[in-house]
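Troubleshooting log. The previous run stalled partway through. Resubmitting the same two chains, unchanged.
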Amino acid sequence: MSTSTELGVLPARLPARFSFIRARDFPLIPLLILGIIAFVAVFADVLAPYDPEIGSLSARFHPPFWQAKGHIDHLLGTDHLGRDVLSRLIFGARVSMVVGFTAVIFAGVVGTTLGIISGYLGGWVDQLIMRVTDAWLALPALTFAIFLAAIVGPSEMNIVIILALVYWTRYARIVRGEVLSLKEREFVRLAIVAGCSKMTIMRRHILPNVVNSAIVLASLMLGVVIVAEASLSFLGIGVPPPKPAWGVMLSDGKQGLMVGYWWLTVLPGCCIMLMVLSANLLGDWLRVKLDPQLRQL
Amino acid sequence: MAVLEAVRLCKHFPARRGIFGGSNGTVRAVDDISFAIEPGQTLGIVGESGCGKTTTAKLVLGLEQPSGGSIRFDGRDLDDLDTAGRRHYRKSVQAVFQDPYASLNPRMRIAHIIAEPLVTNEKLSADDVRKRVRQLLDLVGLPEHAADLFPHEFSGGQRQRIAIARALALSPRLVVLDEPVSALDVSIRAQILNLLGDLQAELGLSYLFIAHDLAAVAHMSHSIVVMYLGKIVESGEARVLALAPKHPYTRALFSAALPIHPDEQQAETILKGEVPSPLNPPAGCHFHPRCPHAMPRCGVEEPALVNVSGSLVACHLFDAGMEFGKSMHAAM
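Second attempt completed without errors. Output:
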């Protein structure tokens, strides 16, 4: 044991770096769930037993296999068009993942950039960006998203852009606050003394120090964005059918709920819940881990 | 010729109050001060917090623009410099700040931190930069492999050495030391002060040394400026000023510092009251409400800096013909 603490010998890095996995608060289960969803999304083509968009009308409303009239061919039953629910859930994971991550990253890049510019440059630039942000935040997010979606029409790409447009303000706000305290720090002053340009200071000194907060926020936003995507899809202005998004499945299945076709709504609902819950738990953990200052968020 | 000269330098901040931000007077953070820093010498600035020391440093570093007066570098007014001249000034004046935990970017490696002024101002090959960083680390007494580490892997004293290495990267003529040892452990202070002294002797640097630690300033400086509420109350050669302070404020300051020898007896002057608000400084001599020797005249008339046996003192006690000043001086 003590031999490794000799002068000049650095303690072995690897075990220390990965020891957090064994820590009590490590969110292993959320990470596993997200991992499985990501895996399923990537390999949807291989994993799905049927084409999610083509059904057979002779096999409508089959219940899951463990129920009385269930078929082993359709493990989780079929919907009103005879499409395999399992396959649709698998492909739906892909939609949620792609939309969720790209929207969060888009919003993050836009919000962080504007937050840094606003906080560092100050003056009228700051006033402008912050007043726009305030106005933006005053609009109810989902209503605003519905409004935008109604204008540009439904498509997966549009959903990403809309969600990024709706949610960038949160990044801008938080990043600006961080920048305001960072720019009074001495290393930023010294960079000015050293003759660095504003651009260089923002890129080299400010950005790396706000990236942690942005990542924490992104992980927390992931759940919000996924729910927003599902809501828009549920309302019919999100991912256009027949593409299998979980929100679309919920919407399609809601009529069947009264006549006992529970699997059409409960299963996609559970998927959304699991994914959002996992994303939030992971975000909570990251927040404490990376940025104690954001605890009260 | 002086490396840097401040002539009647002023910095006034508008004071804002309330949501409508109406201007309610000004804070005279630095009010009409003049000083000169000679080549290879150290000018110490002392005073309580809020007296304008740090604002002076910011003015010299170009982090704030003066609202009056001028700064001359090598005899040339900074306002008259063209872009190239400005650039030259930037390179010639570097800084070390108080808090070594805040003055190094936690996300940059030491080599990168030290090389930043070099890379920003000069076109050097990566090899030359590396060589220079190694040389600078050696100069401040840090091992070569420090270059690849991050700031959090160093102690406060080591960080301050890194900050010094960075300040020296461009071979500046003047280094502004804004409380360079105040945040350090007492046991480390002497090391850093000695390092600064050695570097000055070796490289012929000039220092603008700002501190509230009188012993450190007296030890480091060739001449000292004492500030109170934005104004210079006394300035002169360090030895004279430290051993025989004249202005009542300087006397109070130095009597508050620990004596050099524990057996040494000191007459202690304890000041009453607080430093008044710089928003609304007292009329006449700013120090008069706290001064043990205040006269009616002090509350009305502002004393000018006058030459009293080699030092400049702003006090009515030392105005020409004042018996009290003479007798007090003799008593010391």
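Takeaways: The longest strand of chain B covers residues 22-37. The two ends of chain B are 34 Å apart (CA to CA).
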